[in-house]
UniProtKB/TrEMBL annotation:
Species this chain originates from: Ilumatobacter fluminis
Top-level taxonomic group: Bacteria
Domain Histidine kinase: 245-461
Subcellular location: Cell membrane
Name of the protein in its database record: histidine kinase
Length: 461
């Protein structure tokens, strides 16, 4: 409901209430005034009847009396024709006579009744009584004074209505304006947010619990919206950086392949050893390019949250298998595995993806530690979680490097990692798989003190 409609509704209700109250007031006042007139008429007719009886004055003689002013008209009925003994008003300007019939005087003895004047809109209140001689006496009271009083009261009520409505209008406008201030603030804030000012918030603690609760809910929603926009902008920035890094990383092996191919096609390499070297380099760069494409596809699948079949997976078993594969691929690796008993560290997950985690972390030790560096992989369970820990005694990392170790295409030593065929995506894949399984991965490292990766999942048993 708009402000104008609210004010119109309030004023409409007040108008109806005031009109009903004013009408009731007029009716009550009129009834009381008529009751007072009736009491006066009863007293007057009794007094007049007593006067006529005690004095013995006939109606004709009473009519000849010199009465300069009379509040009431007096009528005597002796037979069938009423005789006006006294007229109301002054002798020089008498009021119109009441139009009373003989039948009304006789039929309504002692019962006050209304009678119109013979001319004009003047009204009378009439009461009659029977005299001892069988005639009837009627006294008529003009109601012009009462009607004037009622008109004055109606005018007073009308002006009071105007005054009350003017006062209430100002009061209601001020109150409504004050009550609408929080809503106006919400509208203003919504407009500012629509213009891009996501930092704006709705004022709270306005004094109304419902409005305070609404403002807090809106602010919570705005916080989430702002966070979502920030995350979206960050995701877009990461996507742009990812595309730029991917383009750069893909261009490097392609450039090598193109360069060696052109060198071979130009006939610059004539010796068998030189041709063998060029073909070996082309094959190596092609293999690295293939691994990089595979890693990118793996990350794309993880980003899309493609749900693979999951079930109970024993971490001890997959770590043992990954360790065996690592030794086969790197015979000179000084790897020690401490998997413990099977059936202890069992989690719900995708077996191949969890095995990929261990393979990638172990491969990371090859890329970033000198040959023969001792590496230990262990499995355990505690407090409802199962964990895999990979520790090496390599050169370690500083805090800045450790903070970015899971970023895509991040390399602490770019040249050395590329020389060993590292795509810069291995640990990013690990982090994505762990997150997809609802787990956590932490890294502890310091220069000269080696590096430890700890991966935790919710334990089934």
């Amino acid at each position: 409901m708009t402000r104008r409609r609210a004010i119109a509704l309030i004023f409409g209700v007040l108008f109806v209430v005031f009109v009903i109250a004013a009408a009731a007031t007029l009716f009550v006042v009129r009834d009381r005034l008529i009751a007072a007139v009736d009491d006066d008429l009863k007293n007057s007719v009794e007094t007049t009847a007593t006067f006529l009886e005690t004095t013995g004055i006939t109606p004709e003689e009473a009519a000849d009396l010199d009465i300069e002013f009379s509040e009431r008209a007096i009528v005597v009925l002796d037979g069938r024709t009423p005789t006006f003994v006294v007229t109301a008003g002054t002798s020089t300007d008498p009021l119109p006579l009441p139009d009373v019939s003989a039948s009304a005087i006789v039929a309504r003895v002692g019962e006050p009744f209304h009678a119109d004047a013979v001319e004009g809109d003047l009204q009378y209140r009439v009461i009659s009584t029977e005299l001892p001689d069988g005639s009837y006496l009627a006294v008529a009271q003009p109601l012009d004074a009462m009607q004037s009083a009622l008109r004055a009261l109606a005018q007073a009520l009308f002006f009071a209505l105007l005054l009350v409505f003017a006062t209430l209008g100002v009061i209601f406008w001020l109150l409504l304006r004050a009550s609408m201030r929080p809503y106006n603030a919400m509208v203003e804030t919504a407009g500012a947010i629509a213009d891009g000012h996501l930092e704006r918030r709705v004022p709270t603690e306005v004094g109304d619990p419902l409005l305070d609760e609404l403002a807090e809910s809106l602010n919570s929603m705005l916080d989430r919206i702002e966070t979502s926009f920030e995350e979206k902008e960050l995701a877009e920035e990461r996507l742009r950086q990812f595309v730029a890094d991917a383009s750069h990383e893909l261009r490097t092996p392609l450039t090598s392949i193109s360069g060696y191919s052109e060198l071979y096609l130009s006939g610059a390499a004539t010796e068998a050893d030189e041709v063998q070297t060029q073909m070996t380099r082309i094959n190596g760069e092609a293999a690295r390019l293939g691994r990089m494409v595979d890693d990118l596809l793996a990350l794309a699948r993880l980003d899309e949250r493609r749900t693979a079949s999951r079930g109970p997976v024993d971490l001890a078993v997959i770590v043992a298998e990954a360790a065996a594969d690592h030794r086969a691929a790197h015979p000179d690796a000084a790897l020690v595995d401490r998997v413990g008993d099977t059936g202890v560290a069992v989690v719900d997950g995708d077996r191949d993806a969890l095995r990929q985690i261990v393979i990638n972390v172990l491969a990371n030790t090859v890329h970033h530690t000198p040959a023969g560096t001792p590496v230990e992989v262990s499995v355990g369970a505690d407090d409802g979680s199962a964990w895999v820990r990979v520790s090496d005694e390599g050169p370690g990392m500083d805090a800045e490097t450790a903070a970015h170790v899971f970023d895509r295409f991040y390399r602490a030593d770019k040249g050395r990692a590329r020389a060993r065929g590292n795509s810069g995506l291995g640990l990013s894949i690990v982090s994505a798989i762990v997150a997809d399984h609802g787990g956590t991965i932490d890294v502890e490292s310091a220069p000269g003190q080696g590096t430890t990766f700890t991966i935790r999942f919710t334990r089934l048993r």
